[in-house]
Please model this.
Amino acid sequence: MVFADDMDVSVLYKSAALDLGIQWVGWAVAVALSTEKFFDLAGSATYALLAYLSLQWGGGHFTRQKVQTTLVLIWAFRLGSYLFMRVLREGKDVRFEEAKKNPAHFLVYWTLQAVWVFITLLPTLILNAKSRDRSLGFQDYLGWSLWAVGILLEAVADHQKSVFKADPENSGKFIQSGLWSISQHPNYLGEITLWLGLYITAAGVMQGWEHFSIVSPIFVAFLLIKVSGVPLLDELGMKRWGNNPAYLAYRERTAVLVPFVW
Model:
């Protein structure tokens, strides 16, 4: 594979190594403490650390790189703190109830998180590894605008669900108000949208094979729609409310992800 002469490929190598190292250390600590509570926090912190360090390693410090890195840091802090507070409030993460009892099985989850972080962050890592810049233009603002729409969707959806679940009167009920009235998974729509936006901005300075990093938003969408997001929550929802006509009606009339489309 031929690398562009304006990119320091060592940034990618160092990022991948550090990413995997952090997750494996996190796994060792989690096994020793028999806890899964800081899994998501470790992932979010890794995103933030790699985004920041890749900016330093690349050495360009161009406006595009600094803005892009700042947006990743904002996203990581918001989502990481939200997920960590949620698991502390609920006392556990149901995804890992069985896995944390088996160190080898648990290691798979931590390793997959390393892969998730690297692939998702790849456009920003490539951008930060660049030594040449170009003037900001429409593509940059389009990408950052999509990021803004995405994080707003995600944050509002998360807040609405938190408020709903905090009300004792809603115990045992499912949310179908606010953004959740037009999409069954508005937070996932926001997540996919913001990473698509970051790719669009970074792609403006990419060459050749570097455009392969479009795998970032595709990978996020695939995982959330087909693997760990929608299928898992749909299965859980059917177990809880599968005999509830109101829930079945909600699923029938409400878009899975994109309002009024699908």
User: Anything to note?
Assistant: The CA atoms of residues 174 and 247 lie 8 Å apart.
